[in-house]
Design a protein that fits this description.
This protein is of the alpha/beta class and 258 residues long. It contains twelve helices and ten strands. The structure holds hexanoyl-coenzyme A.
Length: 258
């Protein structure tokens, strides 16, 4: 894995961990950090020894948003011609399941980055919000789209139009996060979830992610057809035979493809 300056990466027990590490700016997402996160995640995605990616920040902030100071002096031509934030599309397209462990602030781009993960596990003190309206702009890393698909129009409009922050409990109630755990257990719980995912048959977990993700992007009939084709395709894998045989034989499966 390459050398990085704004993130810390490690691999353990089939989990590739990316920790955002710009404490002086509450992990604000500048261009360098975006580049490093995407590069590290792409490397993990290609690594057969990695079955899940864990994305974390610090106790105080997962990420307090895109880097406002870096963006402040830019004009339309530069934002447009450099397709600012476009690189995140690569991250969102990865096939390895991604767990975000959110502690502290997940605001603006921080909330939007967490929403690019497949599971969000939040510490009970976590705070989510899309406060871009207070800067005279709007969400630019998918907030208006992913948030609306996750929580519906009523809550998305409330957050995007008022900039109101919400706590972890409300975030769980409205379907933005998967689970809320005590702050001091966040890392352990997130590692446990990522470890569980990483222990499954890899083609099955990748296709499960693809199938659920398709629900965000396609009409119901196409999504159902896509799911069914993936389901059929899994019958070409040894893991399908092994998983079903193990059930009948009352034993744990031994996955061939992980
Ligand atoms: C750059 C940031 C930053 C950010 C915090 N910092 N957030 N720098 N971009 N998004 C810096 C502060 O300037 C400060 O640096 C240091 O981090 C610590 O932050 P404080 O404000 O002193 O901490 P605190 O008082 O605890 O307040 C925490 C906070 C506040 C509530 C999270 O920092 C805040 O409101 N941040 C901005 C949140 C936000 O608006 N995010 C959306 C960004 S726009 P110094 O050098 O002063 O110590 C976005 C969308 C992009 O994400 C799409 C369209 C633009």
């Amino acid at each position: 894995m390459s050398d990085f300056t704004t993130i810390i990466v490690s691999t353990n027990e089939r989990i590739g961990t990316i920790q955002l590490n710009r404490p002086e700016a509450l992990n604000a997402l500048n261009a360098e950090l975006m580049d490093e996160v995407v590069r590290a995640a792409v490397e993990f995605d290609a690594d057969p020894e990695v079955g899940a990616i864990l994305l974390t920040g610090s106790a105080k902030a997962f990420a307090a948003g895109a880097d406002i100071k870096e963006m402040a002096s830019k004009d339309f031509a530069e934002m447009y011609s450099r397709e600012w934030f476009g690189r995140w599309d690569e991250f969102a397209r990865l096939r390895t399941p991604i767990v975000a462990a959110v502690s502290g602030y997940a605001l603006g781009g921080g909330c939007e980055l967490a929403m690019m993960a497949d599971l969000i596990i939040a510490g009970e003190g976590a705070t989510f919000g899309q406060p871009e309206i207070n800067l005279g702009v709007i969400p630019g890393m998918g907030g208006s789209q992913r948030l609306t698909r996750s929580v519906g129009k009523a809550k998305a409009m409330d957050m995007v139009l008022t900039g109101r922050h919400i706590g972890a409990d409300e975030a769980e109630r409205i379907g933005l996060v998967s689970r809320v755990v005590p702050d001091d257990q966040l890392q352990a719980e997130a590692e446990k979830a990522a470890g569980t995912i990483a222990s499954k048959s890899k083609p099955a977990s990748q296709m499960a992610k693809e199938a659920v993700s398709a629900a965000f992007e396609s009409p119901m009939n196409q999504g159902l057809q896509f799911e069914r084709r993936l389901f059929h395709a899994l019958f070409s894998t040894e893991d399908q035979s092994e998983g079903m045989a193990a059930f009948s034989e009352k034993r744990s499966p031994e996955w061939k493809h992980r």
